[in-house]
Amino acid sequence: MDNDLTRLNKTNKRLEFPIKLRRLLHLKLLALFLLAFVPTSFAYAGIADTYPQVRDFFPAADRFGDIEGSPPAAPVYQNERLLGYAFTTGDIIRIPAYSGRPINVLVGIDPKGRILGARIVHHEEPILAAGVSEARLKQFVDQYRGLSVNGHIIVGGQREGYASIDAISGATITVMVINATITRSVRAVAESRGITPAASTREGATAEPAAANLAAPPAPVKKAATPSPSKRAVAREKQSAPQPPSQIVSAAPPRTTEPHLYEIENEEPTWLILWKQRKLEIALLSLGLIILSNILLFHDFLARRPRLLRRIRLGFLLYTLFFIGWYGLGQLSIINVLTFVQSVMHQFSWDTFLIDPMLFLLWSFVAVALLLWGRGVYCGWLCPFGALQELVFQLARKLKLPYFEMPHVVHERLLALKFVVMLALFGISLQSMLWAIQAAEIEPFKTAITLRFHREWDYVAFALGIIVLAVFNRKFYCKYICPLGAALIIPGRFHSFEWLRRRKECGRPCQTCAVECEVQAIKPTGEIVVNECHYCLDCQVTFYDNNKCPPLVERKKRRERLGRNPETGGAIKPEPEQKISLNKLQAGISKANSTTKQDESDTS
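^ thats the sequence. predicted structure below, dont judge the formating
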């Protein structure tokens, strides 16, 4: 009996696994059966459910169709009459903006070839996330209402045959990317649906002469400019990397399906268009970088001429603040570094970094300077906010205002603070770039430089507080808090040359340069801390000053004692008065000798 029970238990155990497998298979078949009868609208919500603001574009609509076609768009109806198409640009074209991520815009067009409206539903732009109000953003995209879908729209300028719209101050690159995203997307959708572009009807639009469009249909475009309809929109499915959480302007979540992206043949890259529009700025920036390169290469010549060096440095700091910063918006940020890291980790594209010519040229120069000289070239010469602090500090010295320096022990401890800030921002960016952008407000660059202090009072107060602190302590923010400076130190450690000259007496015992360096980048032992040096060249001026550098002063005195001119190296010529006094001395000595001899003879 026991043997029979044992065999029965073994048989049941062998059958247990196949029974579980069959149950799992039945569950899967049931799930597939149910999915086959579930309406598609339940599996994927319609565009009106995902983005309710699309109803503002079509107030008379009673039905929104499914997103379909190539490129994908949802038809909109009123009593079976087609009112137009609604779509998101993220399903059609993705142009990386300032943050390195595309901007997704909800757009509606009508069958007559006009844009009915646009709304930004998804972006990670620093300037839009913090700095530009929702009302201002809505005001910008509202300018597209009534414009033609032919793609002839230009931002912040005038061009024959193009409609002009106003830009957002401080967000030039971002709005240009938005414009390129909208114009290319509406053009692709219109061409794929056989919609003929109409004349722009928005007041003030100058896309085409109104009389010509009323009198005759649109003239055919040359093939070189616009290919035939069958070739205009070329669909190309791309493998896209998953996107991190981003800012959703609407309450609805973004689509999670993998989009099909489309390109238009014979279309110039967006970055190339932007570079052509900023030729003057590129030329002036290139000239400035060439001048700075010569200053750095021939700093020994300038250090021997302190007055000339001071004038050149003052002029370049003004150039950095007013042209690079306030005019060209060329302020680098820790967000640029985090964007680069994200791009390398996910999907690298040069288009991300070429989109802004000012930033691309600056970063290219900074990359070379880091390998040659270290961090100090950017922080001391090319950072607009750093230039603002330096100019304020120099003005305070002219006014003879008091200033203070941190004790050396405290100074060394505070230097680590900026690395903590940088690592915290990097960790936040791994979770969400949006959170990192918001946390990066610890940089006052956006308030003081990009937006020129036109911002909410609390941001302005923070920026002004840092500037006031720079009056009493030279570049306090740059030394202790700036996360960008910390990020530049890391590659700067591998710089190739040590072109700042030192003497064997520096620090042992001479402390002149260490005392005069308000940035406190010279140790008491005499070594220059290259990672903290801002390359102001003050120590090099002292190095060549015969009246200030103690070793040179001592050598000068030694030469004088030896009768050598320290300036010319020649013998010192005695003055006439010196000759007279010397002759008198010789006569006195001779007279004294003769008197002595006479006394000796009288004694004998």
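The chain has 28 helices and ten strands.
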